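Regression check, cytidine-5'-triphosphate case 387:
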Amino acid sequence: LIGVYGNEIKMPVYVVGGFVRDLLLNIPNYDIDVVVEGNGIEFAKYVGKQLDAIVVPYEKFYTATLVFKDGFKIDVATARTEYYEKPGELPQVDVSTIKKDLYRRDFTINAMAIKLNPNEFGVLYDFFNCQKDLEEGIIRILHNLSFIEDPTRMIRAVRFESRYNFKIEEHTLEILKRNLEANYLERVSGARIRQEIEKILEERQPLIAIRRLAELGILKHIFPKTYYTPTMDEKLERVFRFLPLVKQRYQNISDFYAISTVLLEFYDKETLDFMRNRYGYPKKFIESLKFTENMMLPLKSMIESQLSFSDIYKVIGKGNPYIFIHLSAYLDDEGQQYLLRYIDAILNTKLEKVTGKYVMEKFNLKSGPVINEILETLYAMKLDNPN
Ligand code: CTP
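Current build output:
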């Protein structure tokens, strides 16, 4: 239908990028990116009117999003040649043809288009031997400036590599390393780097990608003081095992913060401040990171020796999910299970009837810090004996 509308307003229309890649790989993908040779916004408005969809235009980029009643979305772009005024910044845009549009993309596997206009419906546009790379499982840049134009592509390369079990081709790898060493990643905003890492964390096997980021030296340009040792790998492995269980118990857990508890271990204060600035960690997060780091050994042994919940409570109180996640990096399965039981006790234990007022009346006390102490003690006792 999109193609029919293309004909009606005389514009060639293509579906491009990830959708085509996954179609050829026989993998479902519901992210539809459409490119129009012509004005993408005008096209989106036309389709929106015919199909009663909302059009959200981004004038500056000549793009628009069509939002249908059932929530389905299609992104529409104008075929364009982007040029970047400064590396790492958002591109400037020029109107152009589909071939140029495809050429400016990240990798060959993402640089194919399928025509949607009825006369040529379904025809694959493959100008750069992309299909061959897709079949052979190769991640290849289209031109040597690719990583300079958008350094986050270094991270994307690893993401696609591990998602499809593909390999970054040799020349691409060479250019990647060269641009990496020239510190191009450092020119990108922390928010964009963080977004790319978060995308990796949404993949099925994030640890494999993280290992590869470390192996290629990319991780060092994101977490400058992190030494990716086998011990660190083991810690992350344990965190990834524990994470789904924490997510069942707390809402809005960030995977990025979760792995950061391990990746940011033993950072000096200055670098931590820098990281906080760059990646936007909350102050509280950094504080609890330091707390857990200092208390790690006693906490680990308390949990391993299955000390009573009330004793653990004296040290970490109600804690917070990132403290527990960090701790989980040091615990084997049995330790993690005990920690989970502690978390459940904390989440399910409440002093229902017993309030400050109740304590004051019952024991004939005046208000003061002692009331709080009594409440805390009662709470800790209840942790051990829920009934
Ligand atoms: N693209 C690019 N350079 C980037 C990001 C994206 O050239 N830094 C292009 C690629 O052609 C990509 C398309 O824009 O296919 C859409 O990008 P995106 O939605 O981020 O990725 P997908 O390829 O759709 O991958 P995913 O399956 O992870 O959504």
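Comparison notes: The longest helix spans residues 283-304. Residues 17-18, 31, 33, 105-106, 110, 150, 152-153, 156 surround cytidine-5'-triphosphate (CB under 6 Å). No diff flagged against the previous build.
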